[in-house]
Write a structure and sequence with these properties.
Largest sheet: 9 strands, mixed
Structural class: alpha/beta
Radius of gyration: 21 Å
Number of strands: 14
Mean pLDDT: 82
Distance between the termini: 43 Å
Oligomer: single chain
Number of helices: 4
Strand order of the largest sheet: 8-9-10-7-6-11-12-14-13
Low-confidence stretches: 1-16, 18-44
Shape: globular
């Protein structure tokens, strides 16, 4: 049945005086020009223009089931154990996910030994157990890289691996540490629709020359993916001086200088503005 009194000509809305940054991501079917945009495929995967893919909700290994504390995510971490030690001792970190495609198994072991010494924990370090891509509900490590040639400049899927261990950094509380030698932007996307969705992300663009894209700033592929899927973490831990926080976050704590990093950057917690 036709609408009564339907207009004969299209309705035109004049937005010339409107700041487009204040418009919602999607309005009347028109995408914000600064937004990455995505398109779903037949498997329900969302492909972003940056080459990143956000997979649909799925089951992962039972050891990574519902989290009762913080999920800390540190992309491009190197051997910097500082945030892991700090938040494990001041809050409850149920799982920390460290990601760096330049780290070797030997370097990971050495980092954990340094971590235990800094924490005053006796022993040589925790035992590492291997992980596979399918432990995260995916077919293999190739899915931990974006569909972008630039992302292959410094690390490739054929050298990827993952390990997990249990850390006792606070009495009566254990923390799972997952260390992945994978690409950090895509790995972040792989966690968004799982029980390992990060609620604290460390942003520090170390400047080693091994990044194909920065982690901080509004154009970070990680930020754009989380924004698109309404999965922004409540908090960030941002290096002062060399890394810009994501938009709509404000500093909520004092600057901290933590051991473990190569460059002595102070860092501070930023909270998302509702």
């Amino acid at each position: 049945m036709p609408l009564q009194n339907a207009p004969d000509t299209p309705i035109t809305v004049d937005l010339s005086d409107v700041d487009v940054k204040t418009l919602p991501t999607i309005m009347c079917g028109i995408r914000h020009p600064r937004n990455e945009g995505f398109w779903p495929d037949e498997q329900g995967k969302a492909h972003l223009r940056s080459g990143l893919t956000v997979h649909p909700r799925r089951e992962i290994h039972p050891m990574f089931g519902p989290q009762d504390g913080m999920v800390l995510y540190y992309p491009g971490c190197g051997s910097d154990y500082g945030p892991l030690l700090h938040f494990s001792q001041t809050e409850h970190v149920s799982t920390a996910v460290y990601v760096d495609y330049l780290m070797t198994r030997t370097q990971i072991i050495e980092m954990l030994q340094d971590l235990y010494r800094a924490a005053g924990t006796q022993g040589e370090g925790p035992k590492l157990f291997p992980l596979r891509g399918r432990d995260f509900g995916l077919t293999g490590w190739k899915e931990f890289w974006p569909e972008s040639e630039r992302s292959l400049m410094f690390g490739k899927p054929d050298t990827a691996f993952g390990v997990v261990c249990d850390l006792q950094l606070k009495p009566n509380r254990a923390t799972h540490l997952i260390f992945l030698r994978t690409e950090a932007h895509q790995t972040y996307c792989n966690l968004l629709n799982t029980t390992l969705r990060p609620n604290m992300v460390v942003l520090q663009d170390h400047g080693f020359g091994g990044n194909w894209q920065d982690f901080g700033d509004d154009e970070s592929p990680m930020h754009l993916a989380a924004l698109e899927h309404r999965a922004l973490p409540p908090r960030l831990f941002v290096a002062e001086g060399n890394t810009r926080p994501w938009p709509r976050y404000r500093r909520s704590g004092s600057e901290l200088l933590l051991d473990g990093q190569m460059h002595q950057h102070q860092r501070a917690v930023y909270e998302r503005i509702a």
